Amino acid sequence: MANLKSYKSLQLLTIFTRYLLGTAFVWASILKIKGIRFEPQSGEHAPIHSLSHLLESMYRSGFYWSFIGWGQFLAGFLIMSQVFSTLGAVVYFPIMLSIFMLTTAFEAPIFVVMTSSMLLANIYLLLWDWNRIKFIVVTKPGVYVEQAAGLSSHKIWTYTGFVLFLIITIFRFVSTRHLA
Length: 180
Prior knowledge:
Elements: H1 8-33, H2 51-60, H3 63-80, H4 85-105, H5 109-128, H6 130-137, H7 155-175
Helix pairs in contact: 1-3, 1-5, 1-7, 3-4, 4-5
């Protein structure tokens, strides 16, 4: 993996993958935090085995809907920060795996393509940071050797992630003010 981390193109891919995954979670989280449905129409009369009905049930739970939103918001921020991106990828994984499992179980083909892509991108980020997270998983991980990728260590990516996070958050809050 150390050899792969030396390629600038893969470093850029990793940075932008973090931005994309973080943006998706921050964007989706704002609706939940504000207590707004994910789908425009109520799914209460949809068949009980449909994704629409599940989303409606989660929305109507109130606290749980908000809890999911704050979890996504935090994971999105962490992964976009570049500084805490490893922690963000770890936090992101169980949330994304759960979303993927739900879209698969409820046979929502468009969502399955989207969520599987996001899950694979998250797995890529976990593998990219394997040297840091292996201590959680492996009983005898060996000695830690920092494999800092050149581009990602520049502060510009941290500042860009923070600015992007703020822009997305503000825009989403403003664009959904009429929905709340």
